[in-house]
Amino acid sequence: MANSLAAIATTDLCDAHEAKLADGSLCVLPPVFKAFGKRVAFHGPACTLKVFEDNALVRATLETAGQGQVLVVDGGASLRCALVGGQLGVLAEKNGWAGIVVNGCIRDSLEIAACDIGVRALALHPQRAAKKGVGERNVRVNIAGVAVSPGDWIYVDADGILISRIRLD
Fold first, then answer.
1. What pLDDT digit, counting tens, does each position of 3-44 carry?
2. Which of 95, 103, 128, 143 has a CA positioned 20 to 30 A from the CA of residue 46?
3. 3-class SS at 131?
4. Which positions ≥6 away from 61 have C-beta within 8 Å?
5. What is the DSSP string of 58-99?
6. Neighbour-count burial of 6, counting CB atoms closer than 10 A to its CB (0-12 exposed, 13-18 middle, 19+ buried)
7. 163: enclosing H helix or E strand
């Protein structure tokens, strides 16, 4: 089951699946993401969003039942506003999301630190995003040079972020 109490070490997964790393069915995201939220380690199937400086679709998605999924938000690596804040962290926790990976910024870091979810993002930014509702859900996205498809498995811990085409645990 996704997000059992037993942590799954990304280092152990890399060691056990070297052939998958070699053939590209297991990828490591570049070490550019910072950790936020109470959960240091989390994993689950990916739900993907592609947005740019607009977080209305992020909110709408986090308002739904997460069922242990990891929300992967391709924000185009924008450092001009935050796509996730404290209210969205609370929504993610309340609705059963395992965590959020943001190719962009978050804000309200102290509020997010109090949430029982894991969050990875490029940086902090105090300005909120637009709320126009522009974006795409459940599409293949590119996060820091790595393709992530809906349903891929995301494994996150203190050592890194892995993207796997199949469940490894």
1. 444 678 999 999 999 999 999 999 999 999 999 999 999 999
2. 128
3. coil
4. 47, 49, 71, 137
5. HHHHHTS--TT-EEEEE-TT--SSEEE-HHHHHHHHHTT--E
6. exposed
7. strand 160-164
Q: What is the mean pLDDT of residues 152-168?
A: 97
Enter the tokens of residue 89.
């962290």
| pTM for the model | 0.95
Residue 86 contacts residue 93 (beta carbons within 8 Å): no
Q: Residue 3, CB half-sphere, CA atoms under 13 Å: how many?
A: 21
Phi and psi (nearest 5°) for 88? Answer: -70, -30
Taking alpha carbons only, the member of 14, 39, 19 closest to residue 119 is 39
Q: What pLDDT, in 10s, does the model give residues 66-85?
A: 999 999 999 999 999 999 99
Kindly report the number of other CB atoms within 10 A of residue 5's CB atom: 4
CATH numbers and ranges of domains, the chain: 10-164 (3.50.30.40)
- The rounded distance, in Å, linking the Cα atoms of 28 and 14 is 9
Q: Are strands 99-106 and 146-148 parallel, antiparallel or unpaired?
A: unpaired
